Automatic annotation (TrEMBL):
Pfam families, per database record: Cytidylate_kin
Domain Cytidylate kinase: residue ranges: 32-243
Family, similarity comment: Belongs to the cytidylate kinase family. Type 1 subfamily.
Protein name, UniProt field: Cytidylate kinase
InterPro entries hit by this protein: Cytidylate_kin, Cytidylate_kinase_dom, P-loop_NTPase
Single Gene Ontology MF annotation: CMP kinase activity
Amino acid sequence: MSADSTPTTDATRTAGAASPYAGFRLGKSLVVAIDGPSGSGKSSVSREVARRLRAAYLDTGAMYRAVTLHCIASGIDLQEGSAVEAAARDIELFISTSPDRESVTISGDDVTAAIREPEVSSAVSAVATTMGARAELIRRQRALIAGAGHRIVAEGRDITTVVAPDAEVRILLTASEEARLRRRGDQLGGTQSEVQLKQQVIDRDAKDSTVVNFRQAADGVVTLDSSDLDFEQTVSAVLDVVRTVAH
Ligand SMILES: Nc1ncnc2c1ncn2[C@@H]1O[C@H](COP(=O)(O)OP(=O)(O)OP(=O)(O)O)[C@@H](O)[C@H]1O
Ligand SMILES: Nc1ccn([C@H]2C[C@H](O)[C@@H](COP(=O)(O)O)O2)c(=O)n1
């Protein structure tokens, strides 16, 4: 398992007032952990927040998707817990931690687009609910966060609670069911029926939440409801939390 990342400055100084990083201590270690349900905007918002903070970015959902694709492609039965756990241990997985370069490879093969295919989306909960596979991916995620340099934004379902409970900033990004369904529908260009959208967003969350709690904020986690915010307002709201909590 490996990753690349955005280089960060090692100078410890405060950015100038005109800079978008004004108020942030550059060079100080910063882990921003963001969890939330499907369609809440975790990936897109976290990636943009990472760019603005000149931080690395880790999409942990992509790792669950990669293991799922690997199982499907290798003929591994997703209902066989021990086989799925072994696949999570054995997979040669690379994920980019640059917010400007989305790249996932398995044994050197580019699977960046393939892990987003509907077949993977509808099967991924089987990996996410296999506890042995989770333990292995959590181990890898912690290593990626530790190796990312000074600052990283990591997002998923259990980052604030399990992967990085000591993160300087912990946020639960939520949105109403209606907003999440609308956003996912728009993202997929109106190609999905109401029933398909519900399966991809609501039903998947129901399965995933049997093993991890991303519906309610744990102690010390800031809840940010983006239902009535647009994308830019949500990014600004996350940066405000970072400024308040980590300054
Ligand atoms: N505040 C917002 N207002 C409107 N649209 C948003 C907002 N935040 C994100 N979006 C859009 O909603 C869509 C879904 O966002 P995104 O893929 O980041 O969600 P997610 O929480 O990572 O979902 P999943 O966990 O299922 O991958 C994207 O097209 C994104 O640009
Ligand atoms: N930390 C995480 C990240 C993701 N998952 C699961 C839940 C999802 O069904 C799947 C794919 O995530 P997505 O790309 O849709 O964000 O992975 C998890 O259990 N824990």
